Amino acid sequence: METIWTPHRFSGEVLALDVANTVVLRDDPDRRFDRFEQADEIVRFARAATAFRAEEIGGNTLVVSDPSGAKPRMVALRETTDALFRDASVSGAIRSERLAPLLDQCARALEAAPVMFAAGQAGLRAGQGTIELEAAVAVSALSLLAPEMQRRIRICGNCGWLFLDRSRNGSRVWCDMTVCGNRQKARRHYRRRRDDEGRTVDA
Ligand SMILES: [Zn+2]
Questions:
Q1: Between these two residues, 91 and 197, which has the higher pLDDT value?
Q2: 144: CA distance to ligand 1 center in Å?
Q3: How far is the CA of 100 from the centre of ligand 1 (A)?
Q4: 170 in a domain, yes or no?
Q5: Residue 39 counted as domain residue
Q6: How many domains does the chain have?
Q7: How far is the centre of ligand 1, averaged over its atoms, from the C-alpha of 158 (Å)?
Q8: Would residue 166 count as lying in a domain?
Q9: Cα(6)–Cα(97) distance, rounded to whole angstroms?
Q10: Ligand 1 centroid vs 6 CA: distance in angstroms?
Q11: pLDDT tens, 124-162?
């Protein structure tokens, strides 16, 4: 089934975390699924990310020239990104045994797809035209290692996705208030009603 790349699927706020979130229900082995299962879907993701992450990627266009060749590198980059930042947001520490594999995957992606960083500022240089998605994701993941980025990475209280909390007071709990925030609210409401009914029966 084709994925519709809605704004909700870009709730990570930063490209590397949007990619990490292409695994849905990561913690639930029975229901977990991978939106990058089909290599073509990575191409469609790149197209959507070009629009949603225009600012981060310097207005360049993200492409995937060789989807089946890039897929194993993309998946490895995604998994090492998720493992490091998920752990760091819980433990408050970056473990070298998680950092080394991430740096290794970033190096592979940047080797496979050369790209220019903007000198003197974070991120990709504008005006490069097309950029391979895997290179842009590597640059994005590396940018998250900066302390001011790292300490804003959160895990959604409902769906478990990673997101960058850009709010002023740093108190965001949901990846997307309109989806995950409301779902939690509905669940709480349902539980409360059920409890009330239970009490009536008991009385
Ligand atoms: Zn969520």
A1: 91
A2: 19
A3: 28
A4: no
A5: yes
A6: 1
A7: 5
A8: no
A9: 34
A10: 14
A11: 999 999 999 999 999 999 999 999 999 999 999 999 999
In a domain, 196, yes or no: no
d(CA 89, CA 66): 33
Cα gap 177→193, rounded to integer Å: 22
For the chain, the first-to-last Cα distance in angstroms comes to 50
Residue 132 domain boundaries = 7-154
* pTM of the shown model: 0.90
What's the CA-to-centroid distance between 32 and ligand 1, angstroms?
Answer: 14
Contacts of 112 (CB under 8 A, 6+ apart): 70, 73, 132, 134, 135
CA–centroid distance, 159 to ligand 1, in Å, is 4
d(CA 10, CA 50): 11
Report how far ligand 1's centroid is from the alpha carbon of 163 (Å).
9
Report how far ligand 1's centroid is from the alpha carbon of 58 (Å).
27
